[in-house]
Amino acid sequence: MNSKPRPTRGATLNHVSRRFDIPAMEVDGDWLDEREAIDGAPLPPRTSVTVEHPRTIITRNQSPDIPFDRSINPYRGCEHGCIYCFARPTHAFHDLSPGLDFETKLFAKPDAPALLRAELSKPGYAPSPIAFGTNTDPYQPIERQWRITRGCLEVLAETNHPLTITTKSDRVVRDLDLLAPMAAKGLVSVAVSVTSLDPKIAMTVEPRAPAPRRRLAAVKALSDAGVPTYVSISPVIPAITDHEMEQLLEQAALAGAKWAFFLPVRLPHEVAPLFRAWLDEHFPDRAGKVMSIIQSIRGGRDNDPDFFSRMRGEGAWAELLRTRFHIACSKYSLNIERQALRTDLFKAPAGPQGELFAR
């Protein structure tokens, strides 16, 4: 564990998770102390990428409070380093820390497009929108080289399969050549996450994500291209970003977004101690206040894992946030009409055997 804050990284801690009783792998770390004493402070951690070969790529869920039943995550871990990310605890399954390891030790799934094609080819497959960006960002920096998300989009475009994307990166506009024609068929929507308009706060909360102005520019580019675009102001962090709600929604509307949504910050499993340490480092003047409000929203706990209430929160603070959100959405003409994606255009990929019979 290294508790020294790292420039351009989110987490201030890198505890090894003990939730799955994984034993410590280091036998003797004294040499690390000696190396630092001789060479000086260690360099900022570099990002590494490990290739992963899953057997399937579509993840199914039956959660009653999630509006999709299937998703694809081309990557594990996320270099954006958002301190609040509820996906951080998943790194414990790999004997890695949900702290800095989650941001620096990434996994890529280059077989994803081929696996997707195979799954869509299965007899009896019934289409429903596939969600990208539900766990880690599909347009984080390594997508520039790996292009796994784009490969999956090419398969979905070919088969007229609906999808949704959630991202806090303007890299999504690089795939407009695929997204715009799909949008014209009613097959895609994109949600761009913008949690703060203050560059300093944004850089502290989401240290390696693009600046807010670039994300709003992406909203405009998507909207101008005819892609149905949402803005997510999730999560709202009390006493840090909640005061920006109305301004965020105003800027979202001005950029062309038609829909918006928000969630109060969630702190499951190892995220809570990481978040507390981050508060102590970056917002020591209000750390106690922030956690007090979060606990008032979460029934006296750091986190509420129960279905439905985990997404909404409870109590006076949660109700106030919802009221402000609805008033602002009404003022800026957001969420006026419902938007649904088409599933009737889907055509299963022929695959090698199908192509042989078609000749």
Essential attributes:
single chain; 359 residues; alpha/beta; TIM Barrel; seven-stranded mixed beta sheet; 14 helices; 10% strand; globular; disordered C terminus
Notes on the protein architecture:
With about 350 residues, the protein is an alpha/beta fold. It has a single domain (about 45-335), classed as Aldolase class I (TIM Barrel, Alpha-Beta Barrel). It has 14 helices and 10 strands. The protein has helices spanning about 30-40, 100-105, 110-120, 145, 150-160, 175-185, 200-205, 210-225, 245-255, 270-280, 285-295, 310, 315-330, 350-359; strands at about 50, 60, 70, 75, 105-110, 130, 165, 190-195, 230, 260. The strands form 2 sheets. It has a 7-stranded mixed beta sheet with strand order 2-3-6-7-8-9-10. Strands 1-5-4 form a 3-stranded mixed beta sheet. Helix 9 (about 245-255) runs parallel beside helix 13. The longest helix is centred in the last third of the chain and has 17 residues, at about 315-330. It is globular.
Brief synopsis:
The protein is of the alpha/beta class and 359 residues long. 36% of the residues lie in helices and 10% in strands. Mean pLDDT is 90; it is low at 21-36 and 353-359.
Which structural class fits the helix and strand makeup?
alpha/beta
End-to-end gap: 60 Å
Tell me the helix content: 25-40%
- Enumerate how many helices there are, as a single number: 14
What is the average of the pLDDT values? 90
| Unreliable spans | 21-36, 353-359
**Biggest beta sheet attributes:** 7 strands, mixed
Rg estimate, integer Å: 21 Å
According to CATH, the homologous superfamily is Aldolase class I
* Domain module count: 1
Order of helices and strands: HEEEEHEHEHHEHEHHEHEHHHHH
Placed side by side, the strands forming the largest sheet appear as: 2-3-6-7-8-9-10
CATH class: Alpha Beta
- Determine the CATH topology: TIM Barrel
How much beta, percentage-wise? 5-15%
Approximate shape:
globular
Number of strands: 10
